[in-house]
């Protein structure tokens, strides 16, 4: 199931960050709505969205035929690999806010990145004991290939033949994109965001003292989103930016350590 | 990374096999996006069993080979740049079962991932090469590059790509079977700044930019795919065009958004951007640049439009607040220049905004006009002084703000534009703007600057001549540079050589008789030759030219002739101590005169023939 908090990517889901740590095997797949305030384009951009949907897949440990499985999955959902140019472009993935890093590829389909393909090496500053494979499929982008659409808002959402009942992606999300863009880029109150960040950060560290990894991690996710909003508002300078990132990383690290401590008991 | 891996593998293999006592006739390495290949021909049988040594050596190479970043992928905990899925190792037709982590070598390989995924057996290097050829894999980087260039030439008739060796190498590294396709760009986007289009096409999408014979961007791009398809690449092109369109649409969105307010109005927003936590905002930096521009004019008395240069300085950083620069950071300056011109600023101002980041790195491009150069110098001096003032002084291993490059930039600009000014005075002024005055910091910055200057000079001049000029430096970098040009040319000439010998004769006497008290010249004691020399010295002194170093050297040449006559006719070390002292005093005057130009005593004559 998707996680019910705003987050930048499926990687932030506890099913990734926390469950990829430790020795226990873990396999899961879920759709995670992902929010990127800085990608807000008022619903006018053909493929950049403030909120998009990732299909997140975790296979821990990563199987030997991981790449083949991935390619088969693309075929399974209707992508004809014989007419598209699929490329695995080496990419050293890093999430400074999560203290996480991995190596793998950006998967390109005809010049567009459709999946992040990662072998997790480190999360919350802790080395992964068992290397998990992570796939983050960009659903809108893949659908654009399958439905052969140039604009994300033209995607067919429900496949009804009756034009009165038919819904496009734009019918459902375009207004939200416009409104959230206005909010994220122009309206969001910076003082409120800053003070919320401080309060939630304090609460996170407080909860960690009671060894409650999951509630503390929720607070960390919230702070990460607040930081993304501040970033989108252009309210933080380069130097301050680094400081905020370090603060989120500090929370993530504490959560990961608390999570592992109990699990390894 | 591929070329580096290729050489590094060859070097490691050569070293390891040599130390294992195995001689080889040839050793070749190949790297593509999916495979790393080592092929060698072993010449002599060693005493021990060859198979064992080869196995051990290869396993050690796998273990020792280091990548800039490597990863784990299974429970074996071995590391490599990406997961190893297959090892092929064959010697004289026999499989050598080398082991790395959980992978054991076999005698099979695979063709192209999509075009020929089936495995094939390999018992010799010939099998390997022919298997790959059938399997649609071009193993050699050079072969792929050639194929790309050939296909491009066939696709473009009246058009051409902007050739780019680095891009070619990068693109050739991403494919095993290059297929060139010609894509289209919507004409509506061609109104965007040329550099924006190039950035999107080249840097972001890794396509080649296409232009017409007139040098104007054509509504096309060239891409290299990794696959042949039954539809002749139609779907692939459609997809790539869509991606590029989205990128350009983004750029257009940013452009329109940015243009809704003037560049001038964006200067105010620089107050919100911290330049350095101890140094205030970019707005503060801009005002320092403006004042430094004025100071350059005052110190140099060069002929340039102060108004245009100041205006350019004022607007120089405004584009850092724009959306387009946030999206294309490599275009800082360029974007500001476009916006300035669209706002109706003078062309010289717009040009100077774009040029004030020059020169960049090894790329020797300079500002077009002196106004751009002056803003560039002011910007770099302000960066240098403020970061030193904040304690961010570079060490031998760390230079996070690339201050060495900034200092070198100042030097190159002064020399290229022949701007004569006292660098220490300019630096002192820069420090005063920061309220950071003090002899210590001033010295540490000027030393830093002159160290870079020496580094800059050492490729072009002899070290002894550099030292001779810098010892006598007045702090004017261009003047010192010019002096070195004149001096080295002069010393290469016959006249220069004779003059140099004359000067040396004077210095030898004067320095060997190092006298404590300054001597007073008594003209009444002079004989004819002494009188001649004294007049010649005074004449040369009056002819010393602060900027025309050739003229100064010419007057030294004349003086040297009189010096020769003097030494032929006069014995300096006279028995009479008063006359002796008077002669030494006379030579001391000449020594001082030469020293005001350069320290000739450090110039080495033995290297010269």
**Uncertain residue ranges of chain A:** none
Which chain pair has the greatest contact? A-B, 44 and 46 residues
Count of DSSP H/I helices of chain B: 23
Q: What is the count of structural domains of chain A?
A: 2
Strand order of the largest sheet of chain B: 9-11-12-10
Secondary structure: elements and pairs:
The complex is a heterodimer of chains A (265) and B (609).
Chain A lengths: L13 H4 L8 E10 L15 E10 L5 H11 L9 E10 L4 E10 L2 E12 L2 E2 L5 E6 H8 L22 H19 L2 H20 L3 H20 L5 H26 L2
Antiparallel strand pairs in A: 1-2, 2-7, 3-4, 4-5, 5-6, 5-7
Chain B lengths: L1 H18 L4 E8 L4 E7 L7 H15 L25 E2 L2 E2 L3 E2 L2 E2 L3 E3 L8 E3 L3 H10 L6 H15 L3 E3 L3 H10 L4 E6 L9 H11 L3 E5 L4 E9 L8 H26 L3 H5 L6 E3 L3 E2 H19 L5 H10 L7 H5 L6 H9 L4 H9 L14 H20 L13 H14 L6 H11 L5 H19 L5 H9 L5 H16 L1 H19 L15 H16 L5 H21 L7 H19 L14
Antiparallel strand pairs in B: 1-2, 3-4, 5-6, 7-8, 9-11, 10-12, 11-12, 13-14
Helix pairs in contact in B: 1-2, 4-5, 6-7, 9-10, 9-14, 9-16, 10-13, 10-14, 12-13, 13-14, 14-15, 14-16, 15-17, 15-19, 16-17, 18-19, 19-20, 20-22, 20-23, 21-22, 21-23
Describe this structure in words.
By secondary structure, chain A is of the alpha+beta class. Helices cover 41% and strands 23% of the residues of chain A. In chain A, strands 1, 2, 3, 4, 5, 6 and 7 form a seven-stranded antiparallel beta sheet that branches. Chain B has 609 residues and is α+β, with helices and mostly antiparallel strands. Chain B has helices spanning 2-19, 50-64, 125-134, 141-155, 165-174, 194-204, 234-259, 263-267, 282-300, 306-315, 323-327, 334-342, 347-355, 370-389, 403-416, 423-433, 439-457, 463-471, 477-492, 494-512, 528-543, 549-569, 577-595, and strands at 24-31, 36-42, 90-91, 94-95, 99-100, 103-104, 108-110, 119-121, 159-161, 179-184, 208-212, 217-225, 274-276, 280-281. The longest helix of chain B is centred in the middle third of the chain and has 26 residues, at 234-259. Chain B is globular, with a radius of gyration of 34 Å. The model of chain B has no long low-confidence stretch (mean pLDDT 92). At the A-B interface, β3, β4, β5 and α7 of A face α7 of B.
């Amino acid at each position: 199931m998707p996680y019910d908090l705003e987050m930048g990517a499926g990687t932030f889901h506890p099913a990734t960050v926390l469950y990829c740590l430790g020795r226990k095997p873990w396999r899961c797949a879920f759709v995670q709505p992902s929010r990127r305030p800085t990608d807000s384009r008022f619903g006018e951009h053909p493929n950049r969205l403030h909120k998009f949907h990732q299909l997140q897949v975790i296979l821990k440990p990563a199987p030997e035929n991981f790449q083949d499985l991935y390619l088969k999955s693309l075929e399974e959902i209707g992508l004809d690999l014989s007419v598209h140019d699929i490329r695995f472009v080496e990419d050293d993935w890093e999430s400074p806010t999560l203290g996480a890093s991995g190596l793998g590829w950006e998967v390109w389909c005809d010049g567009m990145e459709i999946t992040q393909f990662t072998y997790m090496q480190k999360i919350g500053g802790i080395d992964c004991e068992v290397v998990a494979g992570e796939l983050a499929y960009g659903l809108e982008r893949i659908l654009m290939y399958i439905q052969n659409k140039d604009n994300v808002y033209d995607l067919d959402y429900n496949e009804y033949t009756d034009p009165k009942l038919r819904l496009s992606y734009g019918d459902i999300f375009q207004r939200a994109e416009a409104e959230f863009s206005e909010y994220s880029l122009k309206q969001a109150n910076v003082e409120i965001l800053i003070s919320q960040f401080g309060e939630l950060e304090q609460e996170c560290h407080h909860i960690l003292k009671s060894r409650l990894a999951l509630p503390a991690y929720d607070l960390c996710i919230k702070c990460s989103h607040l930081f993304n909003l501040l970033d989108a508002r252009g309210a933080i300078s380069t130097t301050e930016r680094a400081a905020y990132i370090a603060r989120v990383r500090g929370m993530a690290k504490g959560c990961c350590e608390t999570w592992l401590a109990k699990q390894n008991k | 990374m591929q070329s580096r891996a290729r050489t590094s593998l060859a070097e490691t293999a050569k070293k390891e096999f040599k130390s294992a006592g195995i001689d080889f006739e040839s050793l070749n390495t190949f790297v593509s996006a999916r495979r790393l290949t080592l092929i060698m021909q072993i010449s002599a049988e060693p005493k021990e069993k060859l198979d064992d040594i080869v196995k051990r050596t290869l396993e050690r190479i796998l273990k020792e080979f280091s990548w800039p970043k490597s990863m784990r992928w299974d429970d074996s905990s071995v590391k490599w740049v990406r997961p190893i899925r297959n090892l092929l190792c064959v010697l004289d037709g026999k499989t050598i079962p080398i082991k790395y982590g959980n992978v054991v070598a076999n005698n099979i390989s695979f063709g192209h991932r999509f075009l020929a995924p089936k495995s094939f057996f390999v018992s010799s290097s010939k099998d390997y090469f022919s298997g790959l050829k059938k399997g649609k894999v071009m193993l050699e980087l050079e072969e792929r590059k050639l194929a790309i260039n050939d296909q491009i030439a066939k696709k473009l008739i009246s058009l051409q790509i902007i050739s780019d060796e680095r891009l070619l190498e990068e693109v050739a590294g991403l494919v095993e079977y290059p297929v060139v396709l010609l894509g289209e760009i919507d004409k509506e986007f061609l109104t965007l700044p040329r550099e924006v289009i190039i950035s999107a096409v080249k840097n972001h999408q890794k396509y080649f930019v296409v232009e017409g014979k007139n040098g104007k961007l054509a509504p096309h791009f060239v891409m290299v795919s990794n696959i042949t398809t039954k539809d002749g690449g139609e779907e692939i092109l459609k997809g790539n065009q869509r991606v590029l369109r989205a990128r350009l649409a983004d750029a257009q969105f940013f452009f329109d958004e940015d243009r809704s307010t003037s560049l001038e109005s964006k200067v105010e927003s620089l107050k919100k951007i911290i330049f350095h936590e101890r140094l205030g905002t970019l707005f503060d930096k801009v005002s320092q640049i403006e004042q430094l521009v004025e100071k350059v004019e005052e110190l140099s008395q060069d002929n340039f439009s102060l108004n245009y240069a100041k205006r350019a300085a004022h607007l120089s950083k405004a584009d850092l607040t724009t959306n387009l620069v946030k999206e294309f950071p490599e275009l800082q300056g360029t974007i500001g220049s476009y916006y300035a011109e669209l706002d109706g600023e003078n062309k010289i101002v717009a040009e100077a905004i774009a040029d004030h980041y020059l020169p960049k790195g090894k790329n020797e491009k300079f500002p077009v006009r002196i106004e751009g150069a002056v803003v560039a110098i002011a910007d770099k001096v302000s960066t240098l002084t403020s970061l030193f003032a904040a304690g961010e002084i570079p060490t031998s291993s760390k230079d996070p703000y690339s201050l060495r490059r900034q200092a070198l930039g100042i030097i190159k600009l002064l020399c290229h534009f022949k701007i004569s000014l006292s660098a220490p005075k300019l630096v002192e002024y820069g420090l005063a703007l920061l309220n950071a005055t003090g002899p210590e910091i001033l010295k540490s910055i000027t030393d830093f600057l002159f160290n870079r200057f020496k580094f800059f000079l050492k490729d072009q001049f002899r070290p002894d001549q550099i030292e001779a000029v810098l010892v006598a430096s007045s702090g004017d970098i261009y003047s010192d540079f010019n002096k070195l040009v004149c001096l080295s040319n002069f010393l290469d000439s016959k006249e220069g050589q004779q003059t140099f010998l004359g000067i040396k004769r004077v210095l030898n006497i004067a320095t060997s008789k190092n006298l404590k008290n300054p001597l007073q010249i008594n003209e009444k004691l002079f004989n004819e030759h002494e009188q001649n020399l004294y007049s010649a010295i005074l004449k040369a002194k009056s002819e010393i030219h602060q900027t025309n170093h050739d003229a100064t050297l010419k007057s030294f040449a004349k003086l040297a002739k009189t010096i020769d006559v003097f030494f032929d006719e006069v014995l300096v070390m006279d028995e009479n101590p008063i006359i002796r002292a008077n002669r030494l005093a006379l030579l001391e005057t000449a020594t001082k005169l030469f020293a005001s130009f350069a320290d000739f005593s450090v110039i080495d004559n033995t290297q010269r023939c």
